[in-house]
Amino acid sequence: MAYPSFYDPATRRALADRLAGLTADRPAQWGSMNAPKMVLHLLESLKMATGELRPRTRNLPLTFLTRPLFIHHLGWPKGAPTAPELLAGVPTSFAADVEALRQRILTLPEPGAHDSVPPHPAFGPMTKHDWAVLIFRHIDHHLTQFGC
To answer: What's the CA gap between 32 and 13, in Å, rounded?
Structure first.
């Protein structure tokens, strides 16, 4: 299955629009995160995608083989552990945090043709296309987790 690129403007708008259905008390369909923690988690993960946040590297075997499988082909695991750095966001108010996420989704800079992109802490070196698919799938996964 080919997944949309996060950097496509229509894809960004569709993801941002899905946030409208999210409330602080909306229950998760799986996992242990609540909606406010999920919003902060997504904000931190977008910082990781731009290199603003650099989580500790996880030395996983054969990342060059597993990266394309996990990013582009396999189903997204429900309830999988995440890097502690991606759970360290400091809440303001739920409405402000959701708006910050919405703005970040709409305005996250797309890397240029000659820009380098940061490595992923589990998958290692990534291409711009890898990040575009991973960002989309990650946000989609968590919005689906909360029925949005």
So the answer is: 27
Question: How many CB atoms sit inside 10 A of residue 125's CB?
Answer: 13
CA pair distance 109, 70, nearest whole angstrom: 24
Residue 143 neighbours by CB distance under 10 Å: 17
- pTM strictly above 0.70: yes
Containing domain of residue 110, as a range? 9-145
Which residue from 90, 92, 105, 120 is spatially nearest to 7, judged by alpha carbons?
Answer: 105
Residue matched to tokens 């299955």: 1
For the segment 55-81, what is each residue's pLDDT rounded down to a tens digit? Answer: 666 666 556 677 777 887 777 778 777
User: Tokens standing for 69?
Assistant: 């499988």
Q: Would you say residue 60 lies in a domain?
A: yes
